[in-house]
Predict the 3D structure of the following.
Amino acid sequence: MHDKDTIKELLLNYFKGSVSVIQKKWIDDWVNESPANEEVFYAYLEEWERKNPQYLTDTEQALVTFRDKSETGTSAGITSVFVRKPQKHRSIKLFLVASLTLFGLLFLGTYKGITVKTYRTGYGELATVTLYDGTVVYLNANSELKAPRFAFLANSRKVELTGEASFNVTHDPINKFIVQTMNGLDVVVHGTEFTVYNRRHNTEVQLKSGKVELIKHNATGEESIVMKPGEKVRMEDDGILQKEKVKVPEEFASWKQYRYVFDQTSLTDIARIISDNYGVEVEISGDSIGKRTLSGSFRSEDAKEFADAVAQVLGISMEIEEKRFRFIELD
Amino acid sequence: MPQFKTAANVTRILSTSRQDSEEIPPQKRSKKAIQDEQLIWHALKEEPSKGMELVFRRYYQPLCSHAVRFVGSKEVAQDIVSDLLAQFYDQKLFLTITTSIRSYLFKAVRNRGFNYLKFDLARKGDLATSPEPRIAETYQPDSITQYEELYQDFEKAIETLPSQRRKIYLLFQFEGKSMKEIAMGMALSVRTVETQLYRSKIAIRHLLKDKWLIFTLVFTHLL
């Protein structure tokens, strides 16, 4: 098919990089055809390299180095390097894979710990927290807030709350502030001051100013409510959202000053507040007194003082047995 | 001719090409080549060290020139060829090969160059401090034309670099100059040189990765 001169020209063009895909295919086949062809291929390759040197080497110097090495026996070392090298690389590779995996696992384990900061208050303890975005959070007693530690790591301003907290949120229309509660209720904030109450019994959101949107995650989907200032939304265990007007605006997060404001609040609810904020068990003896209500404000940093005052106002007695408070109806 | 197009380079080749005064007309050469081959083979058998001298004088230059097309670095090319020749001598491979010495040496250098380039492309991170990739002959392309395709693609990739970046890349990669030397010579900051080198590397890798890097990844995972 091709005579000697054509093949030579084709090969030289091929080394230059100016042959077609089909010609390349022909060369492949031709080289595979016989060892003689392969020899011709390398003969022309050598010729081409001689004519088109990429650079000129110092052959004499290389020869001197080569002689030195073979005389001192170091050239044997080169051979053994070639044998050893793969193993060396494998062990390095294995080591790298192992350490990366380990590091990855450690990192995953501590990643949350690094990027999320948890604020906790004990019983009867209040805390004021300023988040990285300037939002001020007042944490009521026995509450926990999880917030991103670094602004650049937080893709949104999302915090998790267990307990009760009042938020004074810095306005940012692009990056909304969201309070997530463990009861599946999210509070999406549009710049505002509000309180979220989320204890085992129920969840309550109270809005002082601005606008918030509540999103309830149900099994069936989402339910959302937009709140106006002065409104309060309660969610009981049944998951139904109830909206009501706040009758006493001063009641708004009054606990921030250890002050409690009650507006026809039942003794059952007060007992719950004492229990949650001071970590004591509160018991009510008798069916009727639990429904009695109380109005007014009260300031106390101490559970006993608080309970005594409540008992006095309601005209009932209060006993303490092993850290257990008991309200008893007087005969 | 797919040569690295730096002015310094071209001048160097032109000015030193006179050295090759024993140049023989091409017509006569092929006949002489066969004689040479027999002569070398004979010498290797009788007196290996003398034979190796002939091998060096004949093949060192074209082998290095060929290797540098793959590895882009004079130093690496010379190391590859020296290692190859040392192995050829130490293990007395000249006694066992079934092909001609030329075929064996060119084939081997192409394999090493091919694998080096692909490892180099797959190697991430800093140019200066990464460990040397392994030069092995374990992977062989299924057809002979893949070798030319790889180094010609490599060549084309270097050609796409903007002129200053290409100049820096060649000074560093081909000439083996340090970043500091390049920075001094071109009146640039070391940081700029570093950035340009990094970008060159990224650009070259980017151009070659679709066609050539998949092989390497599969290959390295099998190790």
